[in-house]
Amino acid sequence: MSTVPHRDDIPRKDQWDLGSLYRSEEEWEKDLQILSSLEEQVHTYPGTLSESADTLLAWLHLQTRIEELDERLGYYAMLRHSEDAGKSENQDRLSRYTQITSRLGAATSFFAPEIQQIPDATMEELLADPRLDEYRISLNRVLRYKPHTLAPGEERILAMQQEANQTASRSFSALLDVDLDFGEVDTPEGPRTLTQSSFGSLLEHRDRAVRERAFRQFYRSFDQHKNTLAALYAGSVNLDIYRARVRNFSSALESRLFPDDVPSRVYENLLSVVRQNLPLLHRYYRLRTRALRLEDPAVWDTRVALVPDITVHNPYEEAVETVLASLAPLGEDYVTTLRGGLLGGWVDRYENKGKRSGAFSAGSYRGDPYILLNYKEDTLRDMFTLTHEAGHSMHSWYSVRNNPFQHYQYTIFEAEVASTFNEQLLVHHLLGQDQFPGQDQIPGQKQDRPMRAYLISKHVDDIVATLFRQTMFAEYEKLVHEQVESGKALTVDWFRQAYRKLLQAYYGDTLTIPDLLDLEGLRIPHFYRAFYVYKYATGISAAITLSRKVLEGGPGEREAYFRFLRSGGSRFPLESLAAAGVDMTRPEPVQLAMDHFSRQLDLLEEALFGEPHGEQK
């Protein structure tokens, strides 16, 4: 029986080397004291920023010093805590850092409101000083909020509401994570406790009766609390609209798109193009029905793998080489840099007691772009996780080297593009046959038919989950907020009817949609962070488009992709993607992703059934 090792039992070569942040604890402690001491200087600046360019410049230098030191200290403390949260010294380090930065955050919070209150003419005079050029981008990003910033007294009132504003989301989390008891589900392996986490894995069970039992039992619990769930979500939606109106936005959607400077037509294009291509999704469900040999397919059959897990053996070092081979189209410099990082100290590779679950990339300005994994060599998905996180880290690596600290950080909108791009190249490489029509063979690994079916099926399922499903969620959020903005009420019945119409549109007439599934719209945690999920769908669309450009193009297309990686936070997301040749204000990138999905269905059908491309009539 395998056991999870303690941190001290993990070989050093398999741990990350945080020396690029701090070579010793003493260095970290010294910088923490310096950061704490800077608070005294902060208190001399409120009310002075409009006096002269000299004063404003001095403040901006101090602010940058604080933020850069804060980031370096914070990343080190967070990474140490992530590698083993059970160690008291890791808990203590993170706690002391948080206490100091909380005080500093309160002390420096005067900056944005004070800048926004400076008269336009005065601000123009200050910005005319060439010494402020290095801060021009970051200052303009603060100033663009001026039309949506209230008077100091009103801002103070809004700030005092922050704790109360968390009531709906916190209550929702408490209900789902603590109070709801879903019971146990009988399986051939024995009873399994049904939780938010185990629900997904139970829907992947090979025994169809287990899947149905888990589904019905899970949603019966939500049915018992539907009025509370509806009230909580309605409260969150009303809060979104209140905030938007108070800050002079025309809608909650506009207010949420504003920080990334994304016009509403990007959102509308996504919904429209996906709607037009729903017949492809319906074809996918028919293909699943045939592959699973089901006579009466239902929603609880949509998660089980079409191809059972295939046993693989991919030691970490071999997985790295496979990933690097897939990324060869990006050139020698990219591959060489990444090899040095993946094998030389960027990655904390394996599970140990107290280590954070899952995976992440943590790039900072003064340290290497570290990666946390819990790698397992018998799980093919972990190799995809490796290249996904490597995409984030290389994005950070290029951004740091091409931007000052003030605007090197890219947005979530952009982050998922670089990581998903790497996944596209990996699946392309592993299949050993081009994914694009009009081309036959490419260099890569030729797979046997079961492995081909497994890889294509995984790729197709990822597109369904990321592009189609997240767009359905995005459409629902829009409908819900528009219901309130038009002066109408949100009720349990309205929520369920609106969501059922979407289910019917997206699932088509192939699958049975159980009555209780229309409660799904009340159980999605992301809805308490309104208009966020669309970024997953636009991200994969942009990644597919860019990967095709790089694979089908030449040095010019590759260089365009590197312009995107190097942009960092110097441009808004749509500008950085446009520099790479992807215009997300137009429908073409989403449609190209749909065309790619159609091609994958052809290949999947061939791999599963040995038939020519195209749906069997």
UniProtKB/TrEMBL annotation:
- GO annotation terms (biological process): peptide metabolic process; proteolysis
Ranges of residues in domain Oligopeptidase F N-terminal: 114-182
Q: Which superkingdom heads the taxonomic lineage of this protein's source? A: Bacteria
What remark does the entry make about the cofactor?
Binds 1 zinc ion.
Protein name listed in UniProt:
Oligopeptidase F
Report keywords, A-Z.
Answer: Hydrolase, Metal-binding, Metalloprotease, Protease, Zinc
- Family that this chain belongs to: Belongs to the peptidase M3B family.
E.C. number(s) listed in UniProt: 3.4.24.-
Function description: Has oligopeptidase activity and degrades a variety of small bioactive peptides.
Species for this entry: Alkalispirochaeta sphaeroplastigenens
Task: Name the needed cofactors.
Answer: Zn(2+)
